[in-house]
Amino acid sequence: MTMSVFRPAGAPVLVGRAEELAALAGALDRTPSVTFVEGEAGIGKTRLIREALERPARRGRRVLTATCLPLREPFPYGPVFDLLRQLAGRVPGALNPVCGALRPYLPELGESLPPAPEPLQDHRARQHRLFRAVRALLDALGDAVLVVEDLHWADDGTRDLLRFLVDEPPAGTATVLSYRREDLPGGGLPLGRAFRHAPGTTVVLLPLLPLDVAAVRSLTEAITEGGGVPAALAAELHARTAGIPFVLEEVVRALDGPGLLGRGTDRQSLDAMAVPALLRDAMADRMRGLGPAAVAVVHAAAALRVPVGEELLAATVGGDLGEVEGGLREALLAGVLYDLGDHRYGFRHTLAQQAVYEALPGVDRRRLHRGILTVLSAAERPPTVQLAYHARQSGDLKAWLDYGGAAARGARDMGDTATAVELLEGLLSDPRLHPGDRAGLATELSRAAVIGLAHRRATALLRRVIRDGGLPDAVRGEIRLNLGLLLNNQAGAYEAGRRDTETAVGELHERPALAARGMAALAMPSWGEDSYAVHHDWITRAERLVADEPDGALRLAVRVNHLALRLSRGEHAVLAEAEAELATGRGTAERLQLARLCGNLAEAAAWLGHFSRAERFRGQGMRLAEECGAPFLQGIIDGTALRLAWHTGRWEGLAERARHLLDMVEGASGIAADAHLVLGLLAVARGEWEEATAELGAAALDDPANAPAPILAAASGAMARVHLARGALAEACAESGRALERLGRKDIWAWGAALVPMAVAALVRDGQHARAHAVCAEFAEGIAAADAPQATAALRAAQGTVATATGRHLEAAAHFEAAGELYAALPHPYAADRAAEARVRCLVAAGQTGAAPELAALADRFTALGATRDAARCRRVLRGCGVVTPSRRGRRGYGSELSPREAEVARLVALGRTNREIAAVLFLSPRTVEQHVAKVLRKLGAASREEVPAPSTGA
Predict the structure, then answer these.
(1) How far is C-alpha 75 from the chain's CA centre?
(2) H helix runs in 292-349, sequence order
């Protein structure tokens, strides 16, 4: 039975979205393109996309659309296959043979596809071939638009496939993805990890914000088809609807008739709508106009929660099929339900479904859910996630446990960690659970959560379980062990995590394999302030426990941590041993440990200065982490990638990448620390002291006891530089002193590469020459046996600083020259250029002023990199030496454009700096800064400093 009667959705005009519409239309025309449309429920994402597609310039293009559903089953790729099914009868000829891999998934395309290839045994290989097949089919379509809506409800497999497609999109394809950021799973990544912008691809991000008062007024006038809407009433509507177009539309349509808003009774009508439940009342008004059959259909649709066909609606309602059809027709004509395509019917928006559902008495809700449970459980392939939801809502605890557990296991087996954790959290939070069920669910939750991103709810639930009495030590120990890992890794609560992990090791005396896992975790050197010797003792004990363990994945987990511990000290043999491990074929469980190995080695190699090795490990680790469905590990690897970009001078857009990562992994402290550190280092290079202080504090310095040790050392070095630049010598020495004490206790001196040179600079400026020399000697001894090229370069830079302080300028120049060469070989261009600058300054101090012009090239390199503070310092020395440098733009002036110097001044003005503060940062006189500020205001047409626009979010 089919039905085509439907009520057109949406307001008669699109209001307040001119810029977004133009941007989306432009992206659709500049293929290949990827457009992300994000916004809260009811904000108008679907309407914007539809409006862009209906413009004359895009009529006739092939448009394929799909929608992700809230009760997603752990079956990957469903929305993409729904999209491709629309090609039935329109499949192009001469397809790539790999497209035959789609035959089992798209029987509707039948003989239009090439023959199916030979089956592959390896899951990853099968997945890759399937992904290639989808891309090849899309590539054959040529000019096409792909729209996937509600990406926040997509399964992990669908996100993986979409990410594969947009990383290297087909040449003629425009892809549009919409989602609600607040409902994205885990760390909030639309595609499961940070998006990689492929060269030649147009990428647009369109965040849709609520309408302002003027737009609310325009939309209200369009909906009512009446006269003007009073400004006061528009303001009232804006206040009551928060400017959300859907809510506004529902409220206005609930008022009585066209033109009503132009009369004097409008305010009274709004007051009568039982604020703040405006949408609920609007839906109730519509429901009151429906007959009993239509009401029954709408109630069934509200309980079902997702769009469904008439058969399922009829089975849920019961009774005569003809009556159900009539009720559905009435609900469609009334605009309560909508025809959503493919013979599926539901609410136009989740908010409408919630309003109807919440108006139902509890007894009626439970009755509906019991009926749905009966219908769905009889399906050939029962949808376990939906069954779990309806079992829970029906009040049937046994069914809720059975279906919820099955759905969680299915999701976990498919690598959908976020869905598994969500289901297990829901089960564990049910107060009706028997203690035995609670213990089993808590164990499953702890295992799943430890590789996910979200941690707050899981942490609280697990803590509550282990505090309850009656659990055997072995069970409590496993739960506590995973809780400790969760606290350390995701929450960044190192002290609490270490306490729980140590306690768990004692509780697991009957489960030595798990105890070894806890010991191996305690061996990770980033945790706390224990010395290398303590970490080494833990890993030695762990290896003894697993020596005869048959579980290869567990043995590998312990070995991974031992390799990471050894590499932190720069043991050269570790890299070769790690390469051998990675070359060995492994099963699924072991591949997760190999992903950890790559992530740990990438991080350690980056701190040592083995940047090319770190980059290679990073790439391997990301691929393995994606295969294993480990979003936390992916985030850690992304954080390492930020630091690698900083070190190797790839600063363009780096600040934006770091902020994006922070947005995606909010709350995952172990990942956020890297992003905050990079933002702090960039701010230091630009002379933005307040911003640097805030970011370095967020990275580590605000809570040093719960900060990753290498990041804490690097942040302390950067903060010492900030203090020195601001003339706060005592604070610089205090910060350096604390950091050096921590580094000495940890006894991993390779982590001092960013700290020691700045600590020595603070000491010599304070006249503590002997102490500075002793620090260099201790640092040299600490890295003597280490393969730590970055620390080796830092030692020569620190020795150059000591030599400079004692007037041995030529010796100092030799040290700085060696440091620069070592940094350049890594490569670490920023550090290399700073060492080269220090060398020139030493030569000038020794009377060799002919070296001064070299600073001009260094200043240009600093400027190109984004290190404006360093560039300004070089130019000050040039001025002091009487060296005249040509304009960076030649003899022609800048006209109405800002010169590079004026742009630097404008940036600092926008950040709220005074002229005196700007002068200190850029090594200029306050009078010169005053002149630059006047030119900035004139060129930008700004009446005051407050109107100078904020700087861009790039590097």
Answers:
(1) 24
(2) 292-304, 310-317, 321-333
Q: How far apart are CA 479 and CA 518, in angstroms?
A: 11
Contacts of 94 (CB under 8 A, 6+ apart): 140
Pairing of strands 33-38, 202-207: parallel
Q: What is the pLDDT of residue 799?
A: 97
3-state percent helix, strand, coil for the chain, nearest multiple of 5: 65, 5, 30
Mean pLDDT of the chain: 84
- Report residue 37: phi and psi, to 5°: -110, 110
User: In 3-state terms, what secondary structure has residue 912?
Assistant: coil
Give 903 or 137, the one with higher predicted confidence. Answer: 137
pLDDT tens across 639-695, in order? Answer: 999 999 999 999 999 998 998 888 666 555 667 899 999 999 999 999 989 999 999
Q: How far apart are CA 578 and CA 567, in angstroms?
A: 10
| 3-state secondary structure at position 203 | strand
Between CA 136 and CA 702 the distance in angstroms is 51
Cβ contact 516:542 at 8 Å: yes
CA distance 733 to 739: 10
Q: Report the alpha-carbon distance of residue 241 to residue 898 in Å, rounded.
A: 43
Which residue, among 325, 320, 374, 419, has the nearest Cα to 76 in the 3D structure?
Answer: 419
Query: Quick one: angle between helices 689-696 and 669-686, nearest 10?
Result: 160
DSSP letter (8 states) at residue 700? I
What is the rounded CA–CA span in Å between residue 93 and residue 224?
50
First-to-last alpha carbon distance for the chain, in angstroms, is 59
Type of residue at 767: G
Contact 633, 452 (CB under 8 A): no
Q: List 176's β-bridge partners, or say none.
A: 35, 147
Which pLDDT does position 893 carry in this prediction? Answer: 59
Query: Please, which residues bridge with residue 204 across strands?
Result: 35
Mean pLDDT, residues 314-321 taken together: 85
Place of tokens 């010598």: 729
Cα(341)–Cα(732) distance, integer angstroms? 66
* The length of the chain, given as a count of residues: 955
What are the backbone angles phi and psi of residue 8, rounded to the nearest 5°? Answer: -55, 135
Q: What is the crossing angle of helices 829-845 and 809-825, to 10°?
A: 160
CA triple 510-539-557, angle to 5 deg: 75
Its pTM stands at 0.63
Residue 746 identity (one-letter amino acid): K
Least confident of 261-270, 536-545, 548-557, 868-877: 261-270
Nearest to 201, CA basis, from 179, 177, 172, 178: 172
CA 617 to mean position of chain CA atoms? 21
Structure tokens at 293: 């059959």
DSSP code, position 108: G
d(CA 229, CA 496): 59
Q: How far apart are CA 928 and CA 245, in angstroms?
A: 51
Three-class DSSP category at 410: helix
What pLDDT, on a 0 to 100 scale, did the predictor assign at position 69? 84
Nearest residue to 484 (alpha-carbon basis) of 493, 472, 471: 493
Three-state DSSP class for residue 157: helix
Q: State the Cα angle at 379 between 375 and 383, rounded to 5°.
A: 90
Helix (H, G, I), strand (E, B) or coil at 179: strand
Question: How would you list the strands of the sheet with 173-179, edge to edge?
Answer: 62-67, 144-149, 173-179, 33-38, 202-207
The sign of the torsion formed by the CA atoms of 883, 888, 891, 894 equals: negative
Q: Which residues pair with 67 in a beta bridge?
A: 149
SS3 316: helix
- What gap in Å lies between CA 826 and CA 929, rounded to an integer? 38
Q: H helices within 292-416, ranges in order?
A: 292-304, 310-317, 321-333, 350-359, 362-377, 384-394, 397-413
Distance CA 601, CA 480 (A): 27
Going by their DSSP bridges, the two strands 345-346 and 338-339 should be labelled as: antiparallel
